[in-house]
Amino acid sequence: MTRCRTFRFRLHPTFRQTESLARQLDYRRELYNAALEERRGAWAWERRSVSYVDQCRTLTGLVDVRPEVVASGVTLCRGTLKRLDRAFAGFYRRVKRGGTPGYPRFKSAQRFNSLEWEDRSGWKVKESDRRLYLLGIGEVKTNYHRALAGMPKAITVKREGTRWWLSVRCVDVPAQPLEPTGRDVGVDLGVTNVVALSNGELVVGEHFGSHARARLTEAQRSLATKQPGSNRRRRQVESVAQLHRRVTQQRHNAAHQLSRRLVNDYDLIVLEKLVITNMVRAPRARPDPERPEAFLVNGAAAKAGLNRSIHDAGSGNLTSLLSYKAESAGRIVVTVDPRHTSQRCAECGHVEAGNRVTQAVFRCLVCGHEDHADVNAARNILRAGRALLALASDGRI
Ligand SMILES: [Zn+2]
To answer: Taking Cα atoms as reference points, which of 167, 172, 121, 176 lies closest to residue 151?
Structure first.
């Protein structure tokens, strides 16, 4: 099996390179929008669908008409077409599932910030020179703060505000197995405390961006008071975007650190099988039968709060980070059915909703065992995971 991994580095382009990169973004955006137009038109007028391969074929003709667009290599153009193709694939997937997704949209300059090189041509990672070579742009200074592993296969260059980032996707990344520790852990991805471990440890939410979010709320409030079209408003928009990026980054870092620590410390990590997409979906609007224009209360506001907590905890992200780190380290990650884990007593096994006194306190109505509710849940999760693993090793599942 090929193990993949993506490495992310900061890029430091010179003034001139920044201009070239920005110009490339303009060309790519133009190509993206033109390719989208082609797909829309073909369908609207001829009921004909245009594929990624069809669109790649037209690139050769583009060399004569718009040589500057193709000057930095066909790979880069293919990357853009691939991106459009992914947007369509996602659209069709959601339609098939019965949703009502938005049709892929034309991109404005603010919404088009990345350049994708889909195969190995047109760029070269030069680790020892601390440079990234890009065809048509030159050698861009890069801080490779960690060594790449495996074989670099594709890259993405992304603009975030005034900063530029490089992502290198590597394949054939060798595994790095860790020594067994003889310890197991159950993990409860709760909403209030973010993460509770079966050993009693609580990893609290502040690490996951709630502090930065307070500043974000403040910045957004200030944005609302600025005159549309003014320079102050434009600057405020940029600082709101910067804060958003910081929240995301902090959450990502926290998830990385926690998953690394769990993988280092435990041989077996048991998690709840969370169906994130169901939990974060907005509740359906409920029309009021009495008044055709109005809607009944559907709990959307309460759910929005819960959704934000789930997103903030980054549990989906944590689960996927854990899985790939565990795989490389030779650790086992097991997911178990979350039913009853918060109502079951971890001491005597008694299940009753009344056991859970408050969001935070668990007190068993039969044996009187008392614990933090999420830690109690984490212990149940660990037990369920061990049982599952025992069944699997007996060959019964
Ligand atoms: Zn009990």
So the answer is: 172
